[in-house]
Structures are given as C-alpha cells and as structure tokens.
Amino acid sequence: MYLLKKNKVHLQKKERLLSYTKHTHKTATKWVTFVHGAGGSSTIWYKQVREFKKHFNVLLLDLRGHGNSKAHFKDVFNDKYTFDFITNDIVEVIDYEKIEKSHFVGISLGTILIRNLAEKHPARVESMIMGGAIMKLNLRSQVLMRLGVIFKSVVPYIWLYKFFAFVIMPNKNHKESRLLFVREAKKLYQKEFIRWFKLTSEINPLLRFFRMVDIKIPTLYVMGREDYLFLPTIEKIVAKHAISELFVVENCGHVVNVEQPMVFNDRVIGYLNSVE
What we know:
The protein is α/β, with parallel strands linked by helices. It is built from 11 helices and 8 strands. Strand 1 and strand 2 form a beta hairpin.
C-alpha cells in the first residue's frame, strides 16, 4: 500500500525515443509491465494504475510511434516494422530499469508482443495476462485486413480505424472502448499507422506458431464474452496448453480492462499474487 515514486521517463536509444511511466512500490519486489495495443497508448490502463500500484511496482509503456514515444527521424526511412523489432523496444526498457523479471499485462495486439517476448526471452517473463488476446485472425478478420491493405493509402487512416473498431467492438456497451481507441489513434501519423497496419496484416504465420507451442509460462487469458472474433480461438488454446487459464467476463467485449475494470483488476491481481 506504499507508493514511493512516480517517474515519467523518456529513454533515448540508438534509433528512437521511448517513453514510459513507472510507479515504484516501497516494499513490493514484483514488477507488472503493461503493454497496450496498436493505435492505443499507456493511457488505456487508466482504470488499472491506482489498484495495481497498491500491490506491485508498475511499468507502463508507450510503444514505438504511440503516445509520447514519438517516431525518430530515422524511422522516416523505415517502411516496415517487425514483431521482433517492437519487442526489442520493450526489452530495452526493462534492461535500462534493471528489471530482471516481470509479469506482463497486455491488451489486444499487445498480447502478441508479450507472447513474442516470452518466446525470445522466457527467463524475463514471470507470467502473461492476455486481455482481449489475438491468437488467430478468422476469415472475417482476414477479409477486413485485405480491404485495409487495398485502401490504406487511399482513404484517411482514421476512417479505417473507426471501421475496424466498430467491427471488433460493435455493441452499445462497447462504445467507451471504441471512442477511447479512436481518440488515441488520431494521435498517430498516417505513415506510422500504415507501418503498424502492415505489421498486423502479416501476423498469421506467427500466430499459428504461438497456437501450436505451449511455452510453459503461467498464462491467464481474460476475454469478454462478446469478443466474438477472438474468444473461440482462445478457448481452444487453453484446452491444449498446460498452465493456461481462461477467465471470461460477462457483458463485455474486446477491451476488457476498460469495459469491466473492477472485474479485470480483481481477477488479475488475484492471479498475479498466486503465481510463485
């Protein structure tokens, strides 16, 4: 229950400027690192910070080109990102902060980055909390991505983002999540959006590998009952992977931490405290 300090940090590395916020607990030794999705920023965890910092040291990241992590001028010449490239940004931060091991909490595309980090650096990952996890693009998702590829350089990117947000979060009770994600996406530059869109449109081979391989790291999937694009795949994964659990949140869509924050916080904090 003791908060020692809060620091907003900009980490200058060879190719970019990383931004993150850390809340250091007076007595806790465990770290929890939050990873947002494409088009978002660390602000999407605003309903989690107060509760989590009572129990843990907390690290909130702004991914490359998002939030306060502005794109470096060298990125102008880089038309394509890779998941390894983005994952390494996260590793650079925890290295800089001398965090040997952390629990990782992700939402949407952030869950793919966490799973990739666990594959590349398993010793750094104490557990994975996968909110609104994306582990397969079904046929409808793939059609949407192909349409996006066709139109991404023709129409304003925010139109595409609004369309995708509505497809993923269509219900009336998903409105807050839709508005939040669109508001954050408006802060991206068009070229940055296209880089991330290309990254997302090419993930199926990577996701196929993740579905096949049981990484043996404690994993909690937190999915909304109304997350109809992604929940069925997670149910199948949990049935096959030994130390994975699924917690389904009723009356909830894709962005579980925003739509049902109290349920999300209670379940996740309880799980993190149970992981030895």
